[in-house]
């Protein structure tokens, strides 16, 4: 081999090595390698709309699933939605007067639609207790569990921040009017969430119990039940 051909071979070999290294780096970056600070996207959502919440499906490594099954309480974090804005059609009479959908509304509805489509995979029990209810809602499907946890936390933030949703239904509208009197504690289980919701106000306690039963009807009957109006307890 002549010196000239040797130099050409070395140049070609160097170019090949550089090409392999660049390709490996691109693939690693696309996969979101933990060594390079990437994150793995979970089911349905990339990040919780109501908070920068690591328990939201799709938030880096925080989705509840086979890799993160251990029970832990859900932390309530400040919402990125606009407090005081109810869902479309809420009108000026709703809590804090919002008349349009807030920033989180579309994602909340997407989660609800997903859960309704997968309601056969959800099991739910409701136990009335003094001043309110204790509910347990779970699924054996990790994707359903992850969205369920996300949804419950998002709804808890709506109650805390008095940002109404689904107020076309008189029961939901009344529940949000009395949101300041509600106390909601959410605990993650291995397959879902346990919620204890109470109020020292007797009327609000009735609202909590009625709402819990209606949510169970949503799981049992799906969208047709969601389109109904539900009576406010007396």
Brief characterization of the structure:
The chain has 234 residues and is α+β, with helices and mostly antiparallel strands.
Model description:
The N and C termini lie far apart (98 Å). This protein is α+β, with helices and mostly antiparallel strands and 234 residues long. It folds into two domains: 3-36; 41-234, no CATH class. The chain is globular and about 35 Å long. Strands 1-2-4-3 form a four-stranded antiparallel β-sheet, with helices on one face. It is built from six helices and four strands. A hairpin with a 2-residue loop joins strand 1 (122-129) and strand 2. It has helices spanning 3-31, 105-117, 142-161, 170-177, 202-221, 223-226; strands at 122-129, 132-139, 183-188, 192-198. The relative contact order is 0.13. Helix content is 40%, strand content 12%. Helix 2 (105-117) runs antiparallel to helix 3 (142-161) and helix 4 (170-177) runs antiparallel to helix 5. Residues 8-100 have low confidence and may be disordered.
